[in-house]
Amino acid sequence: MASLIAGGVDCDVHPAVPHLTSLLPYLSDYWRDQVTTRGMVDLVSQSYPRNSPIVARPDWRPETGKPGESLEDMQRHVLDPFQLSYAICNPLYGVQMVFSEDLQAAFCRALNDWLVKEWLDRDPRLRGSIVIPTQSIDKAVAEIERCAQDRRFVQVLMLVMGDTPLGKRALWPIYEAAERLNLPIGIHAGSAYHNPPTAVGWGSYHIEDYVGQAQAFQTQLTSLIVEGVFVKYPRLKMVMLESGVSWISPFLWRLHKFWRGVRMETPWVDRASLEIVRSNIRFSLQPFDAPPEPETLIRLFDHMQSDELVLFSTDYPHWQFDGQDALPEGLSPDLVRKIMIDNPHATYPRLM
Amino acid sequence: MARHVIAPVDELPPGTRKFLEIDGRPIAVFNIKGEYFGLMNRCPHQGAALCEGPLIGLAQSSDPGEIEYTKLGEIIRCPWHGWEFDIRTGQSYCDPRRFRVKAYAAHVEPGASVVKGPYVAETVTVKVESDYVVVEL
Ligand code: FES
């Protein structure tokens, strides 16, 4: 494995909300009573079934509670041993599943405030992503603007499988706000389960959902590119989190090939998709889904024609590698430095 | 460079195109609203008979959803994979730096100057009192 260097930025760690009741102190009186009197249960999404192996490394799985719910564990498991300068917290709590725009907005607000108090305030290395209530674009923008006043929020977080293709113009006020406030949009694996988690319908097994994430990322990248999001918001960066990386180049070959014949349908797309990806899209390292041979890895990076696309991540506490082996074999020391330090800082201007 | 007489003007009215082979090269000559254009009839992508494609306009945009449509009838779209080429310059629009098709100048000459030469008029009988479409290559 390539050796880690100190001072890196982990762009994808997952602090877990222990239970819906953990958010009660961060809800308004009204919503607190609603949660209690309606008897609302914990928001558990099927994206990460608690006992599924991928959800936590065996040595990162606590004896009680959810993996990732303890700051001390996160410090002991990643922040300290990886000698990180920063770790970006992407809470994956099922607030996106809620259909009521008011309830969703209340939960997102509580979740963001919970992240500040229970995590960001307790370790200076932690940074946060703003979880937004996409059922209402107005409320999503308001939540971005509210949280952005705290410089420790460095990104806006959305799920790769929400309600609509992400390029749709109805969502653009979110992108406008993000670009204006120097916040990249992180698109994380996972579904709000408002649509089947694959394009062909509902599968039977967890692995179908998990492997299918890559197709969802491809579909979203196509949507974002052809709808012209990056023509309208050229400074906006989007980070594909837990997307995998092995599919990027073949996907772009395919998109580019077919775009050339129907260029006139989306004439605002005035560059090859690879160029758009190079200027506006980034990908987190883990889960690294290529075979372990260094030659394969080098070819993969050659095909991307850039050493700026990949950002270091451990995907803590998900089980993507063992020990300290977060960096695949074959990365040159230069590339390690780019992936762990330079690329994250170039992507997240608020990291400082 | 030689000038080739390819047809009397009235055989190539506006909106038509003529296919021919000159020195072994497949060529098409178009009359677009009274202007004449010669183009190699071989797509630089994978060799389709490009000039058999439809003539469309050029869609451009700097603001998603707002489309400016110009050069009406001056863009030829390859019948195989839909790439667009500018009939005036031969440049492609999906990859202008790497792909272009050879464009040839074409215009009308009166028969009187055509008979004086030097012109190549292998298959066309030239009469002084007619006008002719001439392509240069
Ligand atoms: S052969 Fe003309 S576009 Fe492919």
Q: What ligands are attached or bound here?
A: FE2/S2 (inorganic) cluster
CATH architecture of chain B: 3-layer Sandwich
Domain module count of chain B: 1
Give the C-alpha Rg of chain A.
19 Å
Taken as a percent bin, the fraction of beta residues of chain A is: 5-15%
Protein name (chain A): Hydrolase
InterPro entries (chain A): ACMSD (IPR032465), Amidohydro-rel (IPR006680), Metal_Hydrolase (IPR032466)
GO molecular function (chain A): carboxy-lyase activity; hydrolase activity
Keywords (chain A): Hydrolase, Lyase
Offer a quick outline of the entry.
The complex is a heterodimer of chains A (352) and B (137). By secondary structure, chain A is of the alpha/beta class.
Q: How is the topology of this model organized?
A:
The complex is a heterodimer of chains A (352) and B (137).
Chain A: E1 8-13, H1 29-38, H2 71-79, E2 84-89, H3 101-118, E3 126-131, H4 137-148, E4 153-161, H5 172-180, E5 185-191, H6 206-227, H7 229-232, E6 238-241, H8 248-261, H9 273-280, E7 281-284, H10 294-304, E8 310-311, H11 333-347
Parallel strand pairs in A: 1-2, 2-3, 3-4, 4-5, 5-6, 6-7, 7-8
Chain B: E1 3-8, E2 17-22, E3 25-32, E4 35-40, E5 55-63, E6 66-77, E7 84-86, E8 103-110, H1 111-116, E9 131-136
Antiparallel strand pairs in B: 1-9, 2-3, 3-4, 4-8, 5-6, 6-7, 8-9
The complex binds FE2/S2 (inorganic) cluster.
FE2/S2 (inorganic) cluster (FES) binds next to loops of chain B.
